[in-house]
Amino acid sequence: MSGIPLDSNGSGEAAGGLPPELLAQLTPETLSALRHEAKTQLARQRLALYRPYTKQRDFHAMGATHRERLLMAGNQLGKTWCGGAEAAFHLTGLYPDWWEGHRFHEPTAGWAAGVTSETTRDTVQRVLLGPPNAFGTGMIPESELVDIVPARGIANAIDYVTVKHRIGGQSRLGFKSYERGREKWQGETLNFLWLDEEAPEDIYDEGLTRLTATSGIMWTTFTPLQGMSEVVRRFYPKPNTAQRGIVQMSISDVDHISPEQRETIVASYKPHEREARAKGIPVLGSGRIFPLAESLITCVPFEIPSHWAVLGGIDFGWDHPTAAVKLAVDRDTDTVYVTAEYCVSEATPVVHAAALRHWGKEMAWAWPHDGLQHDKGSGDTIADLYRDEGLNMLPARATFDDGSHGVEAGLMMMLDRMKTGRLKVFPMLTQWMEEFRLYHRRDGRVVKEHDDLMSATRYALMMLRFASQPSLYASRQALNRDVRGIV
Questions:
Q1: Which sequence positions are flagged as catalytic?
Q2: For residue 68, what are the β-bridge partners?
């Protein structure tokens, strides 16, 4: 079985493996009954038959080294199935030979949770137990179920189950929901916690507290439709502590959806939700600054012709990175290509300049207004510090032709170029692409986080009139030296 439910890929439709000559003698009713029985028997072996996709397996393996994990995936790709399989392994101790993740060596106590009691019943509970009329056909094998205790007030909802463990004794799993609030999450000591769908930050933190005494593990599975929430930011674009890990799974990572089906499915989503629902990339909705498909701005990398003009853009930083981009300009088509990126935190101008000089000593650099600030040690401006290190900083800060320097005007210029095919990016610039995906507004204002390469690009585009061919610049410098010598 693949890393999705049995029913999703049509498995279990055979009539018990009977030979064709016997099948021919069966009545349609008998054949239907045999098929139903074969499917039921297979359903009772879901855990043993579970074979994860590569991304799901990577997610399981990450549990051996990370206390908190996030599987951020598109819709209907098997994320809940993956989360449920892991819970069942920890409850039963029936780890398969391929398992590389965390192992518990004794019975466990865990919770599995969803947004509401109803959604927990319809997703998490169904994956683990099966539908209400067929408990034991989910990920927890029927043979291992000891007790199933109903919840009060919600039809067919379960409060908790007890499960036989391989070495003896019993594990216990409770079903929870976010809607009941943080207070309902207090008191228990757990070995593991599975959150299906994104939890509010206070619920997430309270869940972590339940794991403190046991050094337990927590994993979360969801499609990031709430955008760059505080929980998402803990993991994406990079985990903010070593104990956190993230795996992203897109529609191209699963085998149960054909390439033709993928195109149809993606086209059916709202444009601003496509990357979240198909690729597991946080949706930014109408607040996204560049609401474009990546395919519209990326291009196959190529060697830049020597006669093209070039220009660098830099955004100064310390705790947030100092970021830089290199632009190549095709004057004939007025197309700009972002061909290189640099993004490093907590380093001095000496370090940054040493790295950027390799892009070409003769290349001019556009820079922002904070380059006019004075360094506390030397008294020089920040721009002068880079000049002293051999970068050809333009004489003045980045502005448009008319002397203005509005952020919104710069963003609209970038967006216009993207829409008209006049701003292209080499796709191996992974940090640039991450910022492109995440750049958004909140309450109408640009969110000034993870925007360093976007800012560097904007400064360079504002000063594009100063881009020049490297050979012409070198000749001009030589002429200037000759003139000064004569004078």
A1: 197
A2: 218, 244
Beta strands in 74-216 (DSSP E): 109-114, 145-150, 158-164, 170-177, 192-196
Which residues on adjacent β-strands are paired with residue 114? 177
Per-residue pLDDT, 351: 97
Closest CA to 136 of 109, 101, 103, 161: 161
459/389 Cα distance (integer angstroms): 20
Per-residue burial over 142-164, b = 16 or more CB atoms within 10 Å of its CB, e = otherwise = eebbeeeeebeebeebbebbbbb
Distance CA(96)–CA(106), nearest Å, equals: 16
Question: Going by C-beta distance under 8 Å and a sequence separation of 6 or more, which residues neighbour residue 424?
Answer: 297, 298, 299, 335, 336, 337, 338
Whether the bond into 52 is cis, omega within 30 of 0: no
User: CA gyration radius for the chain?
Assistant: 29
Q: How far is CA 74 from CA 20, 27, 42, 139, 283, in A?
A: 41, 43, 27, 21, 11
Percent of the chain having pLDDT more than 90? Answer: 68
Is pLDDT above 50 for 463? Answer: yes
pLDDT greater than 90 at residue 38: no
Q: How far apart are CA 305 and CA 324, in angstroms?
A: 21
Q: Which two tokens stand for residue 85?
A: 């399989």
Closest listed residue to residue 326, CA positions, set 451, 434, 464, 475: 464
Note the pTM of the prediction, 2 decimals: 0.63
For 253-298, the pLDDT digits (tens) are 998 999 889 989 988 887 767 878 888 887 654 467 888 888 899 9
Beta-bridge partners for 196: 221
φ and ψ of 418, to 5 deg: -65, -45
User: Rounded to the nearest 10 degrees, how much is the dihedral formed by the CA atoms of 205, 117, 176, 254?
Assistant: -80
- Mean of pLDDT values over 455-482: 75
The owner of tokens 């061919």 is 469
Q: Write the DSSP symbol of residue 189.
A: -
Helix (H) or strand (E) holding 267: helix 259-268
CA distance linking residue 308 with residue 49, whole number of Å:
58
Q: Which residue has the higher pLDDT, 315 or 238?
A: 315
113 with 194: CB under 8 angstroms? yes
Give the helix/strand (H/E) hosting 315.
strand 309-315
Q: Give the pLDDT confidence of 384-439 residue by residue, as tens digits.
A: 999 999 999 999 999 999 999 999 899 999 999 999 999 999 999 999 998 998 88
End-to-end distance of the chain based on CA atoms, in angstroms?
83
